[in-house]
Design brief:
Strand order of the largest sheet: 1-2-10-5-12-4-3
Distance between the termini: 24 Å
Helix content: 25-40%
Order of helices and strands: HEHEHEHHEEEEHHEEEEE
Structural class: alpha+beta
Shape: globular
């Protein structure tokens, strides 16, 4: 099993050795991400190659996966993913399994607010995000001290202000919130992202009122031409 060295050295990340430990871990003392490192069995590439999906994100159901004509290795990969879905459903969560075949939205704008921009997830009450990449490039994260909120970057704030109408008032603050700019971050010059890795199951902290820890700053990878990803998210 391969774990990014920056994960091992990151004090904001805690590693566990079971799903039960992943569920039971409590975010506190600055730890805002917990990871269950796994070396999964099965041919996930075969599953991807067997899927005929359009550009963009396609939600996959267990029924669709079981209908694929796969070798035993491919069937083993399907079982791993369906078992993960079942685990999370048993926790009364709403996971989705997606095949990501690029994106249909613009991902290169400096003011982007898509999943490929470093961001924090948010909620109105206590919640967290679950993530696993089974095939393809994985998500990556940054320590909180390695980022600056995008609206606090002077040049970016000026551009946002121009788009709003050159009025730095209470309405501008609300506009930034409504358009999710306050949830997106820019890496500082010395920032070094860590990789979530393939097969590892993560649970990461969100921004919500009275959260005991800062949210985990992360992003999906930029699309790679010709690459399809298999991703679980809840």
């Amino acid at each position: 099993m391969v774990i990014d060295l920056r994960v091992l050295q990151n004090p904001q990340i805690h590693l566990v050795d079971s799903f039960e430990a992943l569920v039971g871990f409590r975010f506190e003392y600055g730890i805002n991400a917990v990871c269950w490192p796994r070396e999964l069995q099965g041919d996930f590439a075969e599953v991807v190659h067997s899927l005929d999906v359009p550009q963009g994100i396609t939600h996959l159901t267990p029924k669709r996966l079981h209908e694929l004509d796969l070798t035993p290795a491919g069937q083993k990969a399907v079982k791993v993913m369906v078992d993960d879905l079942d685990r999370l459903h048993e926790r009364h969560l709403l996971p989705t399994l997606d095949c990501v075949n690029g994106y249909t939205h613009e991902t290169q704008s400096p003011l982007r607010t898509d999943v490929c921009s470093f961001h924090a997830d948010s909620a109105t009450a206590e919640a967290d995000t679950w993530l696993c990449t089974y095939h393809g490039s994985s998500s990556e994260g940054l320590r909180n001290e390695e980022v600056i909120c995008r609206v606090d970057v002077p040049e970016t704030r000026q551009e946002l202000l121009r788009l709003y109408g050159d009025r730095d008032d209470e309405g501008f603050t609300e506009w930034l919130e409504d358009h999710f700019h306050t949830l997106h971050y820019s890496p500082l010059p010395a920032a070094m992202p860590f990789q979530f890795g393939t097969g590892n199951l993560w649970r990461i902290a969100l921004r919500y009122p009275d959260s005991p820890v800062p949210p985990c700053i992360h992003r999906a990878p930029d699309p790679v031409p010709g690459e399809k990803r298999l991703v679980l998210i809840s």
